[in-house]
Amino acid sequence: MGSVWLGTWPQMDRVNAQQELLELPESIIPHSILALGYPMDKQVDIPDKSKLESDKIHYEKW
């Protein structure tokens, strides 16, 4: 699994863009985004998704 940390704070143009893109409530201020994923160029065993706590995973929007 790979990851990359995408900084947001304190660049308010990035903060505002992420709030709009993700439809966040005004009380939620994004400080960063963490992207996770599997590389396309390597064969990896992807974990069984049924073991994930789906209520803790958000896709694209709050």
What can you tell me about this protein's structure?
The protein is built from 1 helix and 2 strands; from the N terminus they run βαβ. It has one helix spanning 12-21, and strands at residues 2-7, 32-37. It has a two-stranded antiparallel sheet. The longest helix has 10 residues, at 12-21.
Question: What attributes characterize this protein structure?
Answer:
62 residues, alpha+beta, two-stranded antiparallel ribbon, 1 helix, 2 strands, 16% helix
Present the secondary structure layout.
Blueprint: E1 2-7, H1 12-21, E2 32-37
Antiparallel strand pairs: 1-2
Let me know the largest β-sheet.
Answer: 2 strands, antiparallel
From the alpha carbons, calculate the radius of gyration and give it in angstroms: 15 Å
Briefly note the structural class of the backbone: alpha+beta
Low-confidence stretches: none
The backbone outline, from C-alpha atoms, is flat
Strands side by side in the biggest sheet: 1-2
Strand percent estimate: 15-25%
Task: Describe what is shown at a glance.
With 62 residues, the protein is α+β, with helices and mostly antiparallel strands.
